[in-house]
Write a structure and sequence with these properties.
single chain; alpha/beta; five-stranded parallel sheet; 17 helices; 22 strands
C-alpha cells in the first residue's frame, strides 16, 4: 500500500517509520527543504510556516519528550534548545533511514477522495513542485496528515487599534529580540510563547508589560532536588492517587506545590480557575523578572490610543512602542477536502483525536492534533503506530456511532473541566491518553504481570516517571533495549550535569529493599481492588 505522509516534523518522521514497520510504502511530502517542522528555526520563515524562536528551549525533559525506541544521547541537556531537538530528529531519521522517503520542496495543494473511494479507499493528492512551479496529481491508498495544529494566527482586534502608532505583531512573526532594544513593549497573553517572549524582551527592553486576562498557574522546569518537573509529576502511582482524589483536593495539592516557587496571588498571576482547568505555563525565569521589576503584570487591554494602552482596571501605560500578541492559533487543514473533515471554531471531530468518524474505509488520519500537559512526540508516535496497523488492515475501527459517542464523551469532559477557550478543545492527559492508544496498538504493559517476573522493572515503572520506552516492552514492534532504557533513566538525567563529579554514598541496599517491600504491598492491594488490566 502506498501511503502519503504530509509533513516531516515531529509527527511526520514517526509516521514514516510506523508505515515501514507495517510493511507499507510511505511517501512523505515536505514543502520546505529540510526536516524538523517548527523545530527547524529560521530567521525569516516562509509565509504561513510556524517556527520556534531562536532562543526556544523545550518545555518537557528529554526522557519524557521523544520516541520510544531511540534514546536521546545522554550528553544532551535535560531541557534541550531547539537546535538540539533538530539534531535529535536528524539522528532519528539517519538511524532508521527515513530521509530517502521524503520529497522536499513539494507542497500538498489538495487532498480529496478518488471517484471510486467507497470501493478502494484511495485519495487524490494535487502536488506542487516549489522549485519548478509545476503541479501534478498522484493517487494513494492512504493519507497521514502530520502538519501540526498551528495553522492560522489568532490575532485580536483592539478598540482604537487604527490610531495606535506602534507596532502590533503576533508571536508567530517574532523570531528574536532584534529591533526591540530599549523599547517599551506589551505582551498580550501568558501562555508558553507569551512567557518566553516576555522573559527574553525584559532583558533588553526599557520596560516590558505582561497583559493577561485570566492569569495562569506557573510550573517550573526545575523541580524538587533540581530534577525536571515532569519526572516528578508523571508517575503512575502518583497519577493513580491523584485521580482517585476529589477534584478539589487534587487541585489543592498541585496548587500548593506550584505556590512553593512563588505566591501567584502576590505576583498578580493567580487565576480564578483551578490548576486542572487550564493548560499551565512553563517558566523558570518569570518570577525573577517580575521581582526585579523588569516585567509588570497588567490585566486585559481595554483600548489603544496613539502611544498609550488603557487596561480594563482603568490604568494607562504611556509611550508604548510595540504590542506582541501571544494569543495562540486556530488550527486547520485547508488542503483537505471538507468532505473528509473540517475544523470549526477550533473543534475537529476525530475519533481518539486521529480518525474522522464518518470516513469509510478509514484511510485518512491526523497525527498530533492534541495538546498534552507533557511531551507531545511520544503520543504522536503511539498514534502513528495505531494508524499504521489500521491502514494495513490489522486494526479495526468500531462503527461510526460508537466513534461519535466517544468523541462527544471526550468533548463533554473537556467542557466541564476546562475554562471556555479555543485553546482547550484538544486537551489530553498524558498517562490515560497514552495508555488508551497503547491498548489499541497492543503495547500497553501490565504492571502486575511484570512484577511477578521482573520486580525491579515493575518497581521502577511504578515509582519512577512514566517514560515512552514502556510502550516497547510488549506488543508489536518491541525494542530489546526498552527495559534497560527504563532502568537507566536517572543515569541519563544526571549525565549532562556531572561535569564536576562529587563522591556519592552508594549504601542504598536498605532503601532498595524498602522500595521492593512497599511496591509489593501496593501492587498486591491494587490488584485486589482494581481490575488488573489497568496496570
Amino acid at each position: 500500500m502506498k501511503i502519503a505522509v504530509i509533513g516531516s516534523g515531529a509527527s511526520g518522521l514517526p509516521a514514516i517509520k510506523s508505515c515501514l514497520e507495517e510493511g507499507l510504502q510511505p511517501v512523505c511530502f515536505e514543502r520546505t527543504d529540510d526536516i524538523g517542522g517548527l523545530w527547524n528555526w529560521k530567521e525569516n520563515p516562509a509565509d504561513g510556516r510556524s517556527t520556534v524562536m531562536k532562543s526556544t528551549i523545550i518545555n518537557t525533559s528529554k526522557e519524557m519528550s521523544f520516541f520510544s525506541d531511540f534514546i536521546v544521547p545522554p550528553e544532551f541537556p535535560n531541557y534541550m534548545h531547539n537546535s538540539k531537538v533538530l539534531d535529535y530528529f536528524r539522528l532519528y531519521a539517519d538511524k532508521f533511514g527515513l530521509t530517502k522517503y521524503i520529497k522536499f520542496r513539494t507542497e500538498v495543494l489538495r487532498v480529496s477522495q478518488a471517484e471510486n473511494f467507497k470501493q478502494t479507499g484511495r485519495w487524490i493528492l494535487e502536488l506542487k513542485d516549489l522549485e519548478s512551479g509545476s503541479t501534478r496529481v498522484e493517487e494513494f491508498d492512504g493519507v497521514i496528515v502530520c502538519t501540526g495544529h498551528h495553522a492560522e494566527k489568532k490575532l485580536p482586534h483592539f478598540e482604537g487599534q487604527e490610531e495606535f502608532e506602534g507596532k502590533i505583531v503576533h508571536t508567530h512573526d517574532y523570531t528574536n529580540f532584534k529591533g526591540y532594544e530599549d523599547k517599551r513593549v506589551i505582551i498580550v497573553g501568558i501562555g508558553n510563547s507569551g512567557s518566553d517572549v516576555t522573559i527574553e524582551l525584559s532583558k533588553i527592553c526599557k520596560q516590558t508589560y505582561l497583559s493577561t486576562r485570566r492569569g495562569s498557574w506557573i510550573v517550573n522546569r526545575v523541580s524538587d532536588n533540581g530534577l525536571p518537573f515532569d519526572l516528578i509529576l508523571t508517575h503512575r502511582l502518583q497519577y493513580m492517587i491523584l485521580s482517585s482524589l476529589p477534584e478539589w483536593l487534587s487541585n489543592y495539592l498541585v496548587e500548593s506545590w506550584a505556590d512553593k516557587r512563588f505566591n501567584h496571588a502576590l505576583f498578580g498571576l493567580k487565576p480564578a480557575h483551578r490548576f486542572n482547568s487550564q493548560h499551565p505555563t512553563v517558566s523558570d525565569d518569570l518570577a525573577n523578572r517580575l521581582i526585579a521589576g523588569n516585567v509588570i503584570v497588567k490585566p486585559d487591554v481595554r483600548r489603544l490610543h496613539k502611544r498609550s494602552v488603557e487596561f480594563v482596571d482603568g490604568t494607562v501605560v504611556e509611550d508604548i512602542d510595540a504590542i506582541i500578541c501571544a494569543t495562540g492559533y486556530l488550527f486547520g487543514f485547508p488542503f483537505v477536502d471538507h468532505k473528509a473533515f473540517e475544523v470549526k471554531s477550533n473543534v475537529v471531530n476525530l475519533y481518539k483525536y486521529v480518525f474522522p468518524p464518518d470516513i469509510y474505509p478509514p484511510t485518512i488520519a491526523v497525527i498530533g492534533c492534541f495538546q498534552p500537559v507533557g511531551g507531545l512526540m511520544p503520543i504522536s508516535e503511539l498514534q502513528c503506530r495505531w494508524v499504521g496497523q489500521v491502514l494495513k488492515g490489522d486494526g479495526v475501527l468500531p462503527p461510526s456511532e460508537v466513534m461519535w459517542k466517544d468523541i462527544k464523551k471526550k468533548r463533554d469532559a473537556l467542557s466541564k473541566r476546562y475554562v471556555d477557550s479555543t485553546r482547550h478543545t484538544i486537551q489530553v492527559d498524558v498517562i490515560p491518553y497514552s495508555d488508551e492508544l497503547a491498548e489499541l496498538v497492543g503495547c500497553k504493559p501490565n504492571l502486575f504481570r511484570i512484577f511477578l517476573t521482573d520486580p525491579k522493572l515493575a518497581i521502577t515503572m511504578l515509582f519512577g516517571p512514566r517514560c515512552p520506552y514502556e510502550y516497547r516492552l510488549v506488543g508489536p514492534n518491541t525494542w530489546p533495549g526498552a527495559r534497560d532504557a527504563i532502568l537507566t533513566v536517572m543515569d541519563r538525567v544526571k549525565y549532562p550535569l556531572m561535569t564536576r563529579k562529587i563522591p556519592e554514598n552508594n549504601n542504598t541496599s536498605i532503601i532498595t529493599f524498602m522500595r521492593i517491600l512497599v511496591a509489593g504491598i501496593i501492587i498486591a492491594l491494587l490488584a485486589i481492588f482494581f481490575d488488573k488490566r489497568i496496570f
